[in-house]
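Incident log, support desk, overnight shift.

02:14 A customer reports that sequence design results differ from what the structure should imply. Their input is reproduced verbatim below. On-call engineer (initials T.W.) acknowledged and began investigating.
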């Protein structure tokens, strides 16, 4: 779905309609997570990142799809909304436990997310 997002060095545009269309075009989607990078290398979410995340959660809920996480990839770390601002994503106990477990795994200086659910 990332192919449908436009960006520049300091901003990205996420269209809720494009996100909705991408979800509806897939068969049997029950969960979704999204990610983007910050070219600055600092994965701290901007106010716009927070607003977009809330909007994507709303869209997902209307489609009865669990919005598990929004990752922001930085130079040396990955920010997880599920870990740091869980109210911005759906409540899924299995995924929450998974995120907490993954937070303890490191590879070099970077956090590792083994996506085996």
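02:41 Re-run completed on a clean worker. Output:
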């Amino acid at each position: 779905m990332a192919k449908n997002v436009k960006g520049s060095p300091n901003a990205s545009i996420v269209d809720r309609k494009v996100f909705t269309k991408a979800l509806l075009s897939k068969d049997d989607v029950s969960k979704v997570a999204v990610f983007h990078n910050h070219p600055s290398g600092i994965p701290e979410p901007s106010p716009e990142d927070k607003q977009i995340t809330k909007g994507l959660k709303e869209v997902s809920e209307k489609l009865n799809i669990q919005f598990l996480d929004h990752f922001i990839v930085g130079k040396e770390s990955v920010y997880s909304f599920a870990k740091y601002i869980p109210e911005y994503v759906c409540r899924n106990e299995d995924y929450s436990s998974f995120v907490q477990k993954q937070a303890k795994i490191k590879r070099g200086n970077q956090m590792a997310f083994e996506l085996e659910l």
